[in-house]
Each structure stands twice: as C-alpha cells, then as structure tokens.
Amino acid sequence: MLTNTFNVILDSQTLWIVLTLGIFVGIAALQSKIKHPTFRAFVNPLLLSIIVLIALLLVLNVPYETYQAGGQFVGIWVTPATVALAIKLEKNFEYFAKYYPAILSGIIGGVLVHTILVFIFAWIFDFDAQMVATLYPKSITTAIAVGITESLGGIVSLTVALVVFTGVIGSVIGEQVLRAFKIDDPVAQGVALGMSAHAMGTSKAIQMGDVHGAMSGLSIIITGIVTVLLAPLVGPLLQTLL
C-alpha cells in the first residue's frame, strides 16, 4: 500500500514542478549569502539544480518522461522569457546604434573561428561528418540548433545535450573569464556571454546589468542568424574534408 502511494506521488506532475522550482530557489538563496565571487560563481542555481534533479531521478529510479510531464510546464517559459529580452534591448538600443560595427564584426568573426575550431578538433580527434554536424551548432539556442543538426545529418539528442552543457559552463565561468582577461566594457561582456552561452549566458548577463543583458540578448539573435547562414557551407565542407 505504501509502495503504491509512493509511486503515485513520484508520478505526480505537481511534485516535479514544485521540486524544480524549490531546488532552484533554494540554491539561489544560498548563492546570495556567499560573498566570495569565485565560490559564488560555482554555487550556480542552474548548474546545481540540474545536478540535484538528475541525482534524484537516478536514486528514485524515475524515468525522464515522468519528470518531463511536470517539468515541461517550467520549460515552456523559456521562449517568452527569451522574447522578453527585446524589452531590455529597446531600452538600451543606443549602445547597438553606437557600436554596431564592432558588435557585428565580433559576432561574425566569433562564429567563423568557432566553425574552424570544430573542423580542427574533428581532424585531431578523427571525428566523422555526423559528429561535426552535431558539434557545429552547440553555441546557439536549442530550437535553432536542432534544425541545423537535422539538416546536416547530426545527432539531435547529443546536440541538445551539448547546447545545455555549453550554456551552463558559460554561465558559471563566463564572468571569471572576462575578469581574467580584463574585459570590463558592458557591451563587450554582454556580447561575449550571449554568443558563447546563448540564453543561459544571457541570464548571467542580466544579473550583471541592463546593458549586459540587452547586448547578450541581441547577440543570441545575430549569432543564430550567422550560424544558420553558414550551415549550407558546412555541409559541402563535411563531404569534402571528412
């Protein structure tokens, strides 16, 4: 009887919604009490929430599909939250108007370097064309990345995992990397976080300031567009070089 009741609770959509939000809020509260910037960065609510939830699913032997039945109601807010970044951009559009040559050239150059590095690593580690197609869109938002991976013949599920991993790592260490290289301009910081760690990097940028968040949101859009435009060239290169 108790076992059946416990299984019913674990299958509850409400349970996993409450746990997801509760764990995130709890870790965020813990992070707010940490003063040291390095320790504070690694007590990242997004990263630790993912780890704790995965551990719970494994320990309790709960299938991902069961979690997703409730967790999807949290995920549906990602798209409107991303669109809402346009509000910050509208309020800080003067920065884009002033620095658009540097912003555009920086993002285009970054995407080109990223693409070249993917091919270099493919050559070093002997990746096949499918793996390169999987890795290529890892630094853009999931919705766009999935479409590119499908068109190039990559592994969609692995691309999604890489997109999440890239975003989490970027949001955790991005600020420290910028500080280490003495990059303190808010426009440059926002663009760097947005183009390298997409929405998760943007969430970090928003914490750093309104200008950071606006420029990061803008760079997500431009990075996605540039990556999509380059994708038709990546396909033939895969066939030629690999």
From TrEMBL:
State the Pfam families in the record.
Answer: LrgB
Q: What InterPro entries does the entry give?
A: CidB/LrgB
TM segments? 12-30, 42-63, 69-87, 99-124, 144-173, 214-234
Q: Which domain of life is it from?
A: Bacteria
Q: Name one GO molecular function term.
A: hydrolase activity
Localization per record: Membrane
Q: How does it sit in the membrane?
A: Multi-pass membrane protein
Keywords, A to Z?
Answer: Hydrolase, Membrane, Transmembrane, Transmembrane helix
GO cellular component terms, semicolon-separated = membrane
PANTHER family per the UniProt record, alphabetical: PLASTIDAL GLYCOLATE_GLYCERATE TRANSLOCATOR 1, CHLOROPLASTIC, PUTATIVE SEROTONIN TRANSPORTER
Q: What is this protein called?
A: Murein hydrolase effector protein LrgB
